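#random but structural
TW: two for the price of one
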Amino acid sequence: MSDNKTRSQRDEFVKNPCEAEPSRENDGEEKLSEINEAGSIITCHKSKVIHCLTIIGQIEGHYILSQQNKTTKYEHIIPLLVSIEEDDRIDGLLILLNTVGGDVEAGLAIAEVISGMKKPTVSIVLGGGHSIGIPLAVAAKKSFIAKSASMTVHPVRTTGLTLGVPQTFEYFRRMQDRITNFVTSNSGISPGRYHKLVYNTGELVMDVGTILDGGDAVREGLIDEVGTVSQAIDALYEMIAQASEPEEHNNR
């Protein structure tokens, strides 16, 4: 009885596309619905299931952005990541990034969840992974960036009214330290070098910071490799295979 109940509860999590072969007509409609509702899709290859998640547009925090903006909502992404981590039928996570940045704390919250996952995770920056998109990119166990993509590294900033007092600047400094510590802990760049990129005054006309293209991001140690989506998927399946080897050995 308990086994049936557990199986029923797990079935409510997420459907495994490897369990049954749906009709082609229904398959296309269901996949389109998944993409529209959550910006994600589940796929399988050779009995291995991966969840593909997109993080696009602006990372929306505690305030709702205009309907004209494409947004990624942290209150949707975080529970989804938890369900992916807890569902035994999903073997790995592929994250597609094309974001201009957004809310710092919301972005860091999502990045912390990704970095803490035990399952194989691979990210790839397509188009852009700017601002708070950098922690999101490096949070995965292996990161890729498209050759034509770019990443903008700059200090924390805000819009609207601020108080010009020392406490405000101290708050910004401490928030920037949080980002720097996370990025340097999850990538190959040193804190000193990242600090120099953040406060570079010789590149951006109207801002402080640095723009890195795909090759530069790899050379700086932010991203592991320049590659394509196919290469990112291959790397994820390789990580899944390596993770399953100890389990297969223990079962013998």
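TW: number two ↓
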Amino acid sequence: MSTESIADEIKFAYWVPNVSGGLVTSTIEQRTSWDYDYNVKLAQTAENNGFEYALSQVRYEASYGAEFQHESTSFSLALLLATQRLKVIAAVHPGLWHPAVLAKLGATADHLSNGRFAINVVSGWFKDEFTHLGEPWLEHDERYRRSAEFLEVIRKIWTEDNVDFRGDFYRIHDFTLKPKPLNTPERPNPELFQGGNSTAARSNGGRFSDWYFSNGKDFDGVTEQLDDLRAVARAHSREVKFGLNGFIIARDTEAEARDTLREIVEKANRPAVEGFRDAVQQAGNSTGNKTGMWADSTFEDLVQYNDGFRTQLIGTPEQVAERIVAYKRLGVDLILGGFLHFQEEIEYFGERVLPLVRELEAAQEPAGVA
């Protein structure tokens, strides 16, 4: 089955470092910071260097090299108020949020930011964050069934009045939210992202979300997920956009980029990586066909805890740009980038990589297209 790209140009997002420790679990130097002032400057740099989105991480409990965390929704709003164009996606956990409460917060954030607020629904992989708070820990497919209801309810509340919903996890009775978000024909509700790799995640993405986020994947992995995702979407007369995680190491020479990757892995914080692996691989392996996130991740993959090395955006600006456009040809609409040294590498990406991406995209337009 062929795949199609919905976007005319591939879009770019970056991981907001609102969590300490950086994006690799390694003792290599990471010139980044989880504090507010650093993140405001970074968000402004990103929107001035071609990044359209930013994703705030959700972590509640200190663990695995991420000792300190700023809460995602409040931090996202702070970044929205400090920028002009950047769309900020707040990651949230069903089970720790009620969809109507989040819908209210989201509508307010959307008004305050002139329509730039979005959410990423994370079904949950870290059992301790639920059990340590006295909340029930559901099995994998049950967590995704809850997320499906969460997505359905929040969209209804954002777009309809007198909402009634009778589900297994949520009961809504004649509920009306006002003001609604700044909904338009082009964006009928704040964008709903949903991540995962499993069959359940793909089903949720195809049926209920606007965007599907994948962990890092190579070309074959992306094609497999896109085929499944868009088959589900078409069966429900929908379109869903596809975002791909990738850790970007763009350097003046390929040798320098590869040496950086080698140093990251050689200096991995092994106990932290192994602790993370023990916590997450049960999630992927608990699915019936072993397709969940991290089910087949190697130790090296987990040094970047969302499998970002697998996407192989590593090399010279030309090599990275060519690989990004190759992913776009498969149907990827957005690259979610992580970096070792956020501030300078986002600037480098905007100056050296992004112009090459746009040149390659323009060169591939059909004849006669302006």
